[in-house]
Amino acid sequence: MYGYSEIKTQNYSPQLPVSKWHDIIGERTLADAILDRLVHTAYRIDIKGESMRRKLKNKN
Question: Where does the IstB-like ATP-binding domain start and stop, copy by copy (predicted)?
Answer without folding.
Answer: 15-59
